[in-house]
User: Fold this.
Amino acid sequence: MPSLFTDLDALEQRLRALGAGPRHLQHLMRTWTQALPLSRGRKQVEHFLPLAVRDAWPAIDTALQGLARELSVHPGEDHSVRLLVALHDGQTVESVLLPRGGLCVSTQVGCAVGCVFCMTGRDGLRRQLGSAEIVAQVALARRRRAVNKVVFMGMGEPAHNLDAVMQAIDCLGTTGAIAHKNLVFSTVGDRRAFERLPLGPVKPALALSLHAVDDEQRAALLPRAPRIPVAELVEATDHYARLSGYPAQVQWALIEGVNDRDEDVEGIARLMRGRHAMMNLIPLNAVDGAPWRRPSAERAAEMARALNRRGVLTRLRQSAGQDVEAGCGQLRSRASGHAPTKGVPITLVRDAGTSTPTG
Ligand code: SAH
Ligand code: SF4
Assistant:
């Protein structure tokens, strides 16, 4: 069995065992994470790297390339490119090259949170990605084009794989040459993540997936997210944003009749006014077999205007690659021949003041 470096620690240990010193290690990590040639500038390998490292590198490089391979490539009309990525054990995840140098990476195969509108959440969690498997998605994408921003908004909940995600963030923010404010940790909110984010040498920007202002409605939409009151989540997000210096992104997947009502606008305005944050309204990508739809373009624009008028900085966004299996996890689900399940586990009452599950 060839040695696999699914974790960055294992890779670095192997290189150190071969005699790589700190400068060699930095050179090799840059080579991999930035998809650079091994010999560059005045660093010609035969003069720079220890012989044992030089000899072992081709096999190590092959093992690293085996961590994330392109299974299929789906260019979108908006210059995004969705990649279906095979991991070393045949599991698959999605990465999306975004217009203007961004890359969306996955942190888990599947996800345990089970948000009712999300394709990734349908099968639960299959496995965690190792830190090197997360970084490998960036190395892979950089062989196609330059990447200057990495958002952890692909498949999986970063807070449920916190050690690996924080290691990947530290690597990408140093040898990976991504500006810290351009690393975006996207989460449904988790106390351990709020504690951990300020401690690392690299402090990423934060995106909070909120979707509801009412605690019960949020619990129905995000069934296995930690039960943290919405007010506490927003407070913790605002606190971290001020500490890191970068405004937080608050994500709101817009679902017709569920969270696009006038009372949602009022609730968001109450919660968000004065926060060091920006509200992103993202019209839902419909998932086959589920009843949820996006509101009309007019309604979405009206909500964004109403929030901006109330002093909440709000953008209406579209997720990238709308024309190529837009929603998170949809590409993988099609490729694995997985017909989306018909129906969803719960129905939300649409007209009541607070939506509740009805079984
Ligand atoms: N688990 C993390 C990161 C991955 S999901 C999180 O939830 O934040 C990234 C974003 O995609 C989240 O904001 C999520 O709400 C959004 N999303 C998932 N399914 C979607 C859909 N069908 N339409 C629009 N946004 C969706
Ligand atoms: Fe998991 Fe995020 Fe999808 Fe929810 S939206 S199921 S947390 S990946």
Observations:
- The pocket of S-adenosyl-L-homocysteine (ligand 1) is lined by residues 111, 117-118, 153, 157, 186-188, 209, 251, 253, 282, 284-285, 287, 319, 327-328 (CB under 6 Å).
- The chain is about 35% helix and 15% strand.
- The two ends are 48 Å apart (CA to CA).
- The first helix runs from residue 8 to 17.
